[in-house]
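Students often ask what a 'structure token' actually looks like in practice. Rather than answer in the abstract, let us consider Disulphide bond corrector protein DsbC, a protein of 270 residues. Its sequence is given first.
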Amino acid sequence: MKTLCKSVAIALSASLYSVAAVFAQGVEQLVQLDVLDGGKSDNGTYQGALRLTLKDGWKTYWRAPGDAGIPPQFDWSKSRNVGDIAITWPAPKVFDQNGLQSIGYEDQLVLPVEITPKNPAKPVRLRGEMDLGVCKDVCVPGRLGFDHTLDANAGRNPAIAAALAQRPFSEREAGVAEATCQLTPTKDGMQIEAHITMPSAGGSEVAVIEPGNPTLWASQSDTDRRGNTLIARSEIINASGGPFALDRSEVRITVLGANHAVDIVGCSAG
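Now compare that with the structural description of the same chain:
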């Protein structure tokens, strides 16, 4: 028994040491952030991208990371001559993480950003920070900085073009005929049941529901298909625990399938 206990203690110590060693490295040792140039368009906007290159076996997360993920956040406040920034998220993958669903990217993420300058005649400098999480056997949160003056004369960037091509289909492109949402009060919040009339996106589909309000949280959806209708159920809860109203026009549903993803913005009363 003493030998067994000693073996368990040694194994546990080694595991804790491994976790501590990972955290000691810091996220900057696990992922590299670069800013890519895509040039200036005819309408005056700049095309750029944040490229995250991860160590082998590590993953990072989508804007709605699932129950086991860490949502990325951006601080662009130190940038110069930036009027507006539009992010295009490539379609993510669904992962099983210790029995929990997470949604994100492995190996590399190229995140296109389109920047509208305040003054078209002046250069644009992207300077800020990205809060993110990367996971393998453990999850490591961290912050990465970036500082880059965009090159207006840069040519078409193949990596950015490939990432833009990986965006989810629009409702029209995917053949979505209708999207309705039924709302039912629950003990802790509200159940939302979405009925989406659309062709299959391929394989076992997963629907991710985003409430559209940062103070609200949506649980992992139960998704099933009945013929030409995809049904997704989720519970929405207010982070503060208080009552809330849900605006159906702000609800965003992303269907992730084996063949493609579909981006659905807004749903009517069901």
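One point worth highlighting: The domain at 28-165 is CATH 2.60.40.1250 (Immunoglobulin-like). Ask yourself how you might have guessed this from the sequence alone, and why that guess would often be unreliable.
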